[in-house]
């Protein structure tokens, strides 16, 4: 082989090695906001196994639970800038970056897991994904179904809005969720997720709301006594990839990411259905007491929907957007 031929072969090899995505054996980092055992962790674990199988070991996925790679809000910026590959986070933390996603967190829009699935896997989900790419530089590739955000507190059973008024409640730094509590007559305490357990433990706040699976995974039974079955927000927690990272991959790797995300979404939906009832029993066994709103939640629903929905029509893309979502759900 001549020097010239050897040089050409070397250059071609180098070109193949450095050309996007699948030519390199890459390990993708996935930030997971919640702890192992949570719905987020379950979905991320399924994404990992599905993706690694689809690329036949050419790429790996490492999961970092419990906010090891930063707060959920921080990971959006990191993914957008290309310093983090993936993140699994509550959809309410995407809303400040891509406001139209807020339609999924308007109180009492989603009334069942089936409705949540219909929205995120259909045309609504496709539109919101396109919007997050445009607005935030991140792409939603899959969804976690975590269940309704129930209210927990350390003080007393909460059955009416009058009971709620004496409590200090932590909420995410999300305008829609803050407005919901304000409609119920209290000013909640916006707080980063990473600070929440300590704040509950130290009595800085009395309570918070999150799905049963999250209450269990985060060991809130150690610092909370009471659960109220409110159903104002169904917790959806997407897995996002930085759009820059996504675009760098070959078509095969991009497809593997999207297909693994779809499989993880379906797995999450089934896992929630199989798991939530067992977790409720476990929390009761650990001493938590569960109650329902006294009036079937009618007062909660009426005040939240009449006060909050109109306030956010503009940010979600107009009242027509909400009407279209409700029509999709048959309402």
How would you characterize the overall build of this protein?
The protein is of the alpha/beta class. It has two domains: 23-146 and 235-277, Bacterial extracellular solute-binding protein, family 7 (D-Maltodextrin-Binding Protein, domain 2); 150-233 and 280-328, D-Maltodextrin-Binding Protein, domain 2 (3-Layer(aba) Sandwich). It contains 14 helices and eleven strands. A six-stranded mixed β-sheet has the order 7-6-8-5-9-11. Strands 2-1-3-10-4 form a five-stranded mixed β-sheet, sandwiched between helices. Helix 2 links the parallel strand 1 and strand 2 (60-64). Helix 7 crosses helix 12 (298-308). It is globular and about 55 Å long. Mean pLDDT is 92; it is low at 1-23.
List keywords for this structure.
single chain; 331 residues; alpha/beta; D-Maltodextrin-Binding Protein, domain 2; 6-stranded mixed sheet; 5-stranded mixed sheet; 14 helices; 11 strands; 16% strand; disordered N terminus
Strand content: 15-25%
Major beta sheet, specifics? Answer: 6 strands, mixed
Q: What is the CATH architecture annotation of the largest domain? A: 3-Layer(aba) Sandwich
Residue windows where pLDDT falls under 50 for at least 5 positions: 1-23
Distance from N terminus to C terminus (CA atoms, Å) equals: 73 Å
Report the CATH C-level class of the largest domain.
Alpha Beta
CATH-wise, what's the superfamily of the largest domain? Bacterial extracellular solute-binding protein, family 7
The run of helices and strands is HEHEHEHHEEHEHEHEHEEHHEHHH
Secondary structure: helix percent: 40-55%
Number of β-strand runs: 11
Largest beta sheet: strand ordering:
7-6-8-5-9-11
CATH topology of the largest domain: D-Maltodextrin-Binding Protein, domain 2
The average pLDDT is 92
The number of helical elements comes to 14
The outline comes out as globular
Q: How many domains make up the coordinates?
A: 2
Structural class: alpha/beta
Radius of gyration over C-alpha positions, nearest whole angstrom: 22 Å
